[in-house]
Amino acid sequence: MSTSRLADDVAEQIRQLIIAKDIAEGARLPSERHLAEMFGASRPIVSQALRTLSLMGLVEIKQGSGAYVMRRPESGIAASVNLMLDLDKPSLSHLVDLRLWLETLGATEGLRHPDTDLAEVRSALQRLKESMAHGTSAWIAADTVFHAAVVRTSGNPFLTSIYEAIHTAVISYEYHDWVNRDLIPDWLLPDHADAQMAIHKPILDGMAAGDDAATRAAIRHHHEVMLEHIERSRR
């Protein structure tokens, strides 16, 4: 099996371990050495698997401390999406567009409800702001949680579940080198923190103002920046 396939298998086993052992949010996972022994894998494979779980916003890796559960796994359609991508690589462009449409739909549906509570989105944005100081894994996991919180304002859990599966598949391309080789992309270096916040905060600002056009524009701008990152990663 390829290294990526092995890492994906271990990532799924860790995800199932979190569910089976009912490991709480914020709890520390077993060490990489222990996980490697449990699943009969090498430590580099386990490290790659943990980075994959960060893409999903499930695990936060703290340098020198270990990996921690960021939130509980939910059932989704990620496996089916990844299978489609394996069979049809050119479909990535369609998947990126779908991610944009789903996030836009979730946010604008949230705006339709006058009693929509943005507390979760605000909390997620604050966590995103603080995460840059804690490393790449913390940022990527917090980023996934932020966008999922935006979509969750729609009040439709099925939309959120589908969105998260699509989002994870898309950013697996954006952060391919980080997952597979632990290479940090230049846009996540500490001196780019302000630029990263500048493409996320307007999404919340638009929603808080109840401004449909501004919210759509902010999500579209984030989408365009993501496209640039994906193109750079693929090159």
TrEMBL record:
Protein keywords: DNA-binding, Pyruvate, Transcription, Transcription regulation
Domain HTH gntR-type stretches: 4-72
Species lineage: Bacteria, Bacillati, Actinomycetota, Actinomycetes, Streptosporangiales
Family annotation (Pfam families): FCD (PF07729), GntR (PF00392)
Record InterPro entries: GntR_C, TF_FadR/GntR_C, Tscrpt_reg_HTH_GntR, WH-like_DNA-bd_sf, WH_DNA-bd_sf
Organism: Sphaerisporangium rubeum
Protein name: GntR family transcriptional repressor for pyruvate dehydrogenase complex
Domain of life: Bacteria
UniProt GO molecular function: DNA binding; DNA-binding transcription factor activity
